[in-house]
Design goal:
two-stranded antiparallel sheet, about 10% strand, alpha/beta, five-stranded mixed beta sheet, elongated
C-alpha cells in the first residue's frame, strides 16, 4: 500500500553530495572521452554531465531502503540534500489519500462495457427507440442485452447511445422533480428509531410530524402534527427549516401544555428523515432535562407510512395552495386554518369533528393550551378566501 501510493521526488541540485553523475563507479572511474565526440579530451567522464547517457558501463546507484520495506525515504537518518540517490520517494498521507479517492472515483465512473459491446447494443436499442418502443419492451424482447430497465434509462439520459432520452415517447411530458428536503446524513441516530422498531411497540396512540414548505421566495416553513386516533391537526410557523427551529416549537408546546400533558399527546412521534429532524436527542429531552418524547423515523421514500398527516396536508393545501409564499403568514392565520380543518366532520369518526373527539378524550384545558376553538358547521371554509377574509 505504501509503495503503491508513495510520492516520487527527483531531488537533483548538482551539489557535491548530489552530483550530476549517479553512477556507482563515479568515485574511482578514470575513463575519458567515453562519448567519442571530442578527439582530444583529458577531462574525466565522471565529472561530465553527459556521462550517464553515453557510458556503456553506467550502473545507477540504488538504495536498499527503496527496494524493500518501507519503500520510502521517510525516517532515513541521512538528510535529503546529503543523499546521493537521484530518484527519491516519500510517503505523504494527504497525497496518498487524494490518490486513493481519485482511483476510487475513476474506477466507478463511466459505463461497464467495452466499445465493441457498446456498438453492438446500440445497433439493437437505438432503432427500436426510434420505432417508439419503450425501454421495458426492448429489454423484455432482447434478454441478450444483459441490462436492467433502469440502466437503459440511465444510459439514454447520459447520451451513451445514438438514441437520446428526448426520443422516448413520454419523456418530454414530464417535468424534473423538485426535491425540497435534504436527508439526514448521520445514520447512527436511526439505531433503535427505525420504522420496524416503531411497529414493534404496537401503539394505539401516537403523533405524526412533518413540514410543509413555502414557495422559493420564502425560507419559512410550517411544522405540522397529526394525531391519527382523533384526526386532530396542529400547525406552527417556523422562520427557518432547521433543527433548532423544530426544538423551539417542542419547548414552546411543553411550556404551554406542561410536562405531563405534553407526554400525553406527544409521547411517541413518527416523522420522516428530513434534515430538520436530525437531532432526536434534543427533541426527546425536555426543558427540565428529563425525557419527554420518543422519535421514530419512516423508511426512505415511504411517506405513506405516515399517511394520516399527508392526508391532512391536502386539506391545508386547499387554503394554502402550492407555490404560496409563507413570508407574510402569521401564527394567527395558521391557527384559523387549523380550527377550520379540525371542525370538518370525518366519516371515519362517524360524522364527528376532530375537535369534538379531542375534547371528549383530553378535556377543554389541553385544547385551550393549544389555542384551539370550534367553528360552526356553516362557517367552515377550506378555500384560499379564508385567509383573505381574516386579513
Amino acid at each position: 500500500e505504501v509503495k503503491k501510493h508513495r510520492l516520487s521526488d527527483w531531488y537533483h541540485k548538482g551539489t557535491f553530495y548530489n552530483a550530476h553523475n549517479f553512477c556507482v563507479h563515479r568515485y574511482h572511474c578514470n575513463k575519458t572521452n567515453a562519448c567519442g565526440k571530442i578527439l582530444i579530451c583529458g577531462v574525466k567522464c565522471a565529472s561530465c554531465p553527459t556521462c550517464n547517457q553515453t557510458c556503456q558501463d553506467f550502473v545507477r546507484e540504488r538504495c536498499n531502503r527503496l527496494d524493500k520495506a518501507p519503500y520510502v525515504c521517510n525516517g532515513c537518518s541521512k538528510a535529503i540534500n546529503h543523499c546521493t540517490i537521484a530518484h527519491k520517494y516519500r510517503y505523504d498521507a494527504i497525497y496518498a489519500n487524494r490518490k486513493y479517492r481519485e482511483k476510487l472515483e475513476s474506477s466507478r465512473a463511466g459505463i461497464n462495457m467495452t466499445k465493441h459491446e457498446l456498438h453492438e447494443k446500440d445497433a439493437i436499442i437505438s432503432p427500436l427507440i426510434y420505432q417508439g418502443q419503450s425501454p421495458y419492451q426492448i429489454i423484455t424482447n432482447h434478454p441478450e442485452l444483459d441490462m436492467s430497465v433502469r440502466t437503459l434509462y440511465s444510459y439514454l439520459d447520459q447520451g451513451i447511445f445514438s438514441a437520446r432520452n428526448i426520443d422516448l415517447k413520454r419523456k418530454v411530458k414530464f417535468k424534473p422533480r423538485n426535491i425540497h428536503k435534504t436527508q439526514i446524513k448521520n445514520r447512527e441516530i436511526f439505531d433503535g428509531r427505525m420504522y420496524k422498531d416503531f411497529l414493534a411497540l404496537e401503539l394505539e396512540h401516537f403523533a405524526e410530524m412533518d413540514t410543509v414548505h413555502s414557495s422559493h421566495e420564502s425560507k419559512r416553513t410550517i411544522l405540522t402534527f397529526f394525531l391519527p386516533r382523533e384526526k386532530l391537526f396542529l400547525a406552527f410557523i417556523m422562520n427557518r427549516n432547521t433543527k433548532g427551529a423544530v426544538k423551539l416549537i417542542f419547548d414552546k408546546l411543553e411550556r404551554q401544555l406542561g410536562a405531563y400533558d405534553f407526554q400525553v399527546l406527544f409521547h411517541t412521534v413518527l416523522t420522516d428523515r428530513g434534515s430538520e429532524f436530525g437531532d432526536p436527542d434534543a427533541l426527546e429531552t425536555g426543558i427540565n432535562g428529563h425525557q419527554r418524547s420518543n422519535i421514530y423515523y419512516c423508511d426512505p421514500m415511504r411517506s405513506g407510512q405516515k399517511g394520516g398527516i399527508e392526508q391532512a396536508h391536502t386539506m391545508l393545501r386547499m387554503v394554502l395552495p402550492k407555490k404560496t409564499s409563507f413570508e407574510h403568514l402569521t401564527q394567527w392565520d395558521l391557527r384559523t386554518i387549523v380550527d377550520h380543518i379540525n371542525s370538518t366532520p370525518r366519516e371515519i369518526l362517524n360524522g364527528r369533528t376532530p375537535y369534538d373527539v379531542a375534547l371528549e378524550r383530553y378535556g377543554i384545558d389541553i385544547l385551550k393550551a393549544l389555542q384551539l376553538r370550534p367553528i360552526s358547521p356553516d362557517k367552515v371554509n377550506l378555500t384560499p378566501k379564508l385567509i383573505r377574509f381574516n386579513q
